[in-house]
Amino acid sequence: MKRQKPPMAHPQFKLDFGLPRLAPPYRLRAGDVVLFDNRPCPVLRVSDCAAVIAVSRPSRQFTTIWGVNVSIKPKPALVRISSNSLCPILKRRGAKP
């Protein structure tokens, strides 16, 4: 007798290690823009346990000993937060205005 797979009841129904799991609708996705520390930050990548976001740093301005004004813009800091974090999502990936 041939074994049949049970039908999936919901389109968000997923299987993790053979166990059914329902994906929550608030889960972050790569490409989303979230509000973190009162700044909009893009989500770079998302795994089961963490999401990596890029937080911009302020530019540094100083004057050299020769009197030239210099401005340095550092790379954004990479911050890891929970992938199920309830931070406000400003823009969903793939959303059209």
Question: What key attributes describe this structure?
Answer:
single chain; 97 residues; mainly beta; 5-stranded antiparallel sheet; two-stranded antiparallel sheet; elongated
Question: How would you summarize what this structure contains?
Answer:
The chain is an all-beta fold and 97 residues long. Helices cover 0% and strands 42% of the residues.
- Secondary-structure element string: EEEEEEEEE
User: Proportion of β residues?
Assistant: 35-45%
The total of beta strands comes to 9
- The average pLDDT score comes to 80
Structural class: mainly beta
Strands side by side in the biggest sheet: 8-5-4-3-9
Helix content: under 10%
Q: Tell me the overall shape.
A: elongated
Major β-sheet annotation = 5 strands, antiparallel
Low-confidence stretches: none
Helical element count? Answer: 0
**N- to C-terminal distance:** 53 Å
Rg from alpha-carbon coordinates: 21 Å
What does this structure look like?
The structure is a single chain. This protein has 97 residues and is mainly β. The chain has a domain at 29-85. It has strands at 13-16, 19-22, 33-36, 39-46, 51-55, 60-63, 69-72, 77-81, 89-91. The chain has a 5-stranded antiparallel sheet, with no helix packed on it. It has a two-stranded antiparallel sheet with strand order 1-2. Strands 6-7 form a two-stranded antiparallel ribbon. A hairpin with a 5-residue loop joins strand 6 (60-63) and strand 7. The termini are far apart.
